[in-house]
Amino acid sequence: MDERNSILIVDDDESLLDILKTALSSEGYRCETATNLESAIELIDKISFDIMITDIRMPGIEGFELTEKAKIIRPDIAVVIMTAFIDEFSYDRAIEVGASDFIKKPFTLKELIARIQHVKVQKRIRSMLVTDELTGLYNRRGFFTFAEQELKLANRLRRELYLLYADLDNLKEINDSFGHMEGDSVLIETAKILRETFRQSDIIARIGGDEFVAILTGTTETGTNMASSRLQKNIDVYCEENPPQYKMSMSVGIAKYNPEFPCSVDELISQADKSMYEQKRYKQLF
Known about the structure:
By secondary structure, this protein is α/β, with parallel strands linked by helices. 51% of the residues lie in helices and 18% in strands. It contains 10 helices and 9 strands. The strands form 2 sheets. The protein has a 5-stranded parallel β-sheet with strand order 2-1-3-4-5, with helices on both faces. Helix 8 (180-197) crosses helix 9. The relative contact order is 0.10.
């Protein structure tokens, strides 16, 4: 499915779902529908939807629960909330959980299309602001935006998450010996390896010249360590298949976020950074 024009519509009114799916399909959108939280989450887990349009008052769904869970799985998904209870609608809460816009029931197709186009423009602008031009990963601004949101969710859900901090070894030497174009090529290939290593739901960013980070949610310490090992292995495999003129490797550090002892994103990065430098110093000894 082309995620650039893919929409998930969630409502317990099946007749409304049929009407919206038919109408939006005629406008060129590819639509899937769900009538409950479980089926919606199952679809979101399988498909990287561009937009989710959802009611917030449905059996088995408490308020913004679906929006929160969708954002955990797909941080990039734009959410348009439908509600017939405008007096009870909390704008602050909607923004806090990551909603992009809302529309009051009943509405016309013209109104809905306008909302969809609005959030798509917002998403394009936001993508330009938060994306690293060279690698296509999130930049520092993008990482902090999404990481702070993940920490808030971790606090609310009382769950741990992990931050992996990776430094590309010897980038300065590569730039000095082979030129900055070659250095840029290494950064681009590193970004590709990171995408192959981590899940789509993980937040991956380049936050400095040779510094990369990833927020891993819904995993354990063991799972995070396995991801770190997989990253090192994927780099080794790449070097075997594409033998470079220089040594290509990364030093990695991991930090755990515990909602019982909350800290800022900066503090979490600092913890992982210290762990990364311990590995880098160890490498230099051998």
